[in-house]
Each structure stands twice: as structure tokens, then as C-alpha cells.
Write a structure and sequence with these properties.
With 352 residues, this protein is α/β, with parallel strands linked by helices. The protein has 14 helices and 11 strands. Strands 1-2-9-6-5-3-4 form a 7-stranded mixed β-sheet. A two-stranded antiparallel sheet has the order 7-8. α6 packs parallel to α7. The longest helix has 20 residues, at 256-275. 46% of the residues are buried.
Length: 352
């Protein structure tokens, strides 16, 4: 599989990835290599990775607890302290080996330590392969508010090895599939149709095309001033739903993809009401999503709390919530203002 060239770094696949990383370490002559993992990737992914890495440099493993609940500044401080205590300097390299939490947090940690050290992303979940590891976004949550603290910073390279997907659950595979559906709806309807028809799906091909799409968008709009906003389809309401379930003591957390899937159904419905996105296509989106994800009933008494969380979305300007909506598949409209009543109506539509 050929490599993809992003704005300042390559995305390598399978065996070429490890060869390229070993060459990078020689070329850059790093002083120390830090590998950031959680308990799951340390057990299931680290043994394979370390067997592929060829280097005589000192290697230190830093382990954090898994889960979105640990994607915060407190965890970052722990990692910064560990790097400091282990003798990290400006010539150190941080390798992130894990899912979206590891990738987002690790990139942020590296970008801030001593005003920035090099980092390499090695995503091990479908979600991190098709989304979090590519595009230069790093960051952590502020309480339950998603990705409020962060910055744009590019890795030295991204290494994608689909063999790591054998270590994750079906639920996590479904979580990543939501981002692929998003790329299909907003940018390349062939992807959406492949998932809808479920004929001869090759996960490696879906991953490659998804990364290709994200890279094409980011190359045109690296700082999310215009086109890149389409990658937020389903995320405005989806992030609020994800945050609500994260902070609710009496509800099971939703995965990122499960929440975004709900958001895509709701935002498709809003698109119908505001922009004339055909109801047949709204139902198509809803049917595909409900064929993949278990139904999560949004309780009416929770609508207000979810809407309150919308007010903290990163894309808001002057307190106004901005949605990415659809005129049609592959045809979007940015910065759409949506009345609270219609947002509630969209959640009722999802429930129906």
C-alpha cells in the first residue's frame, strides 16, 4: 500500500511503516525514545511494536490509564513529570501507541514539553487510524467538555498497521466506522454506499480512503477556517451527547463513534428542515446507522442538559452554536444556526 504525503509528514502502512520509523530514528539521532501506552496497548500492542523497532537508543515506556475520562491535564502533568524524571530533553522522541485518547493527549504532551519535541503516531484502533492520528489536532478535555485544551501540531510521521485491529473489540471497530460513514456522507458517497451494501468490504481499503480524504481536506484547510469544518458533521450534537453520557453517573458511557452516529442522524434531520436535504436520504442515513449501532434512547428530561453542553462546542462564535449541515450528499453548508426547538425535534426523530 503506497504512502500518503500530508502537509509536513508521511503516513506509512504495514511493514514499510516500521522501516521508515527506524530510519527516522537514525536520521534524527534522538537522545531518548519514549513510548506512550495505556494498559491495553501495553499488553496487546507493545510486544509486536517493540519486536519491529530496530534501534540502539534508550527506550522508556510511559503508561497511562485508558479511557476518555483520563484525557485531561492531570494525566498530561503525570506524563510530563515522567519524561522529566526519565531524563527527557529537546532531542527526545515520543511515540504514541494507542487509540484516540493516546494520540490526542500524546501529541499535546509532546508539543508542549520544552516547547515541543518530535512525536510519531501509531494508531491501534480504527477510530484513531481514520481520524485522530492524522490532521495535526492534539488536545485534551476540560472536565467533560471535549477537546477544549489543545493546539495544532504535526507528527514526524504516522504509521498504520491494520494488524493492531485484532486487539480491539467489535464495539471499538463500530466506533471507528462512524468516522468512515461521515467521510462518505460529506465527501465520497461511494464509501457510504460500500458500508450500506456491505459487499466485499476490505477494511484496509476503507482505512486508506478515509485517511486520503482527511488529508485532502486538511491540505486545503489546515486550521479549520472553511472546508475542514465538514469533518465536524455529526460532531456538534454528537460531542454534546458524548459529554452528557460521560458525566452521567447513572448511564453507561457511549463510545465516540456511537455518539457521533446519533449526531449524524439528528443533523441529517435538521438538514432536511433547514436546507431541504431529502427525507429519503435522511432515512437512509438513519437506517444504515441503526443497522450498525444499538439504539440509545435519548430521554426527554435529558434534552436540556445536552443542549446546555452544546453551548461549549469549540466551533461556537459569540455564543452561537454552528452546525455543518447537508444540502445533499457531498454537498454541505457551513456555520448554520439552528433553533433549540429544532435540535429537540431532531433528537425526537432519532428516538422515533
Amino acid at each position: 500500500m503506497k504512502s500518503i504525503q500530508a502537509v509536513s509528514y508521511p503516513v506509512h502502512f504495514q511493514e514499510k511503516a516500521y522501516e521508515s520509523l527506524s530510519n527516522l530514528i537514525v536520521q534524527k539521532n534522538y537522545s531518548t525514545i519514549f513510548i506512550l501506552v495505556d494498559e491495553n496497548t501495553f499488553e496487546h500492542c507493545y510486544p509486536k511494536f517493540i519486536s519491529k523497532l530496530i534501534t540502539d537508543k534508550a527506550i522508556e515506556v510511559i503508561e497511562i490509564e485508558s479511557g476518555e475520562i483520563n484525557k485531561n491535564l492531570e494525566t498530561c502533568i503525570g506524563v510530563w513529570n515522567a519524561i522529566t524524571e526519565l531524563g527527557g530533553d529537546r532531542k527526545s522522541l515520543l511515540i504514541t501507541l494507542g487509540g484516540g485518547v493516546i494520540t490526542d493527549l500524546g501529541g499535546f504532551v509532546a508539543s508542549c514539553f520544552k516547547r515541543g519535541i518530535d512525536f510519531v503516531n501509531i494508531p491501534t484502533t480504527l477510530l484513531s487510524m481514520v481520524d485522530a492520528s492524522v490532521g495535526g489536532k492534539t488536545g485534551v478535555d476540560l472536565g467533560v467538555l471535549k477537546n477544549q485544551i489543545g493546539l495544532f501540531a504535526n507528527p514526524e510521521m504516522v504509521l498504520v498497521d491494520t494488524d493492531y485491529l485484532t486487539t480491539v473489540s467489535e464495539r471499538e471497530i463500530k466506533s471507528g466506522t462512524a468516522e468512515i460513514i461521515k467521510y462518505g456522507i460529506t465527501y465520497d458517497i461511494k464509501l457510504f454506499n460500500q458500508i450500506k451494501e456491505n459487499k466485499g468490504l476490505q477494511i484496509a481499503d476503507l482505512i486508506f480512503r478515509s485517511i486520503e480524504i482527511k488529508n485532502e481536506v486538511v491540505l486545503q484547510d489546515p486550521k479549520e477556517k472553511s472546508l475542514r469544518k465538514i469533518l465536524n458533521f455529526g460532531h456538534t450534537l454528537g460531542h454534546a451527547i458524548e459529554s452528557f453520557y460521560l458525566e452521567s453517573e447513572d448511564k453507561e458511557n457511549l463510545t465516540h463513534g456511537e455518539a457521533i452516529a446519533i449526531g449524524m442522524v439528528c443533523e441529517s434531520y435538521i438538514s432536511n428542515k433547514l436546507l431541504g436535504f431529502k427525507i429519503k436520504k435522511v432515512n437512509e442515513v438513519k437506517n444504515v446507522i441503526l443497522s450498525i449501532y444499538d439504539k440509545t434512547t435519548l430521554l426527554k428530561e435529558d434534552f436540556g442538559s445536552i443542549i446546555d453542553l452544546l453551548k461549549h462546542d469549540k466551533k461556537n462564535v459569540n455564543g452561537q452554536v454552528n452546525f455543518v449541515l447537508l444540502n445533499d450528499f457531498e454537498n454541505h453548508q457551513l456555520d448554520c444556526k439552528v433553533a433549540e426547538e429544532l435540535i429537540i425535534e431532531s433528537m425526537e426523530f432519532y428516538n422515533s
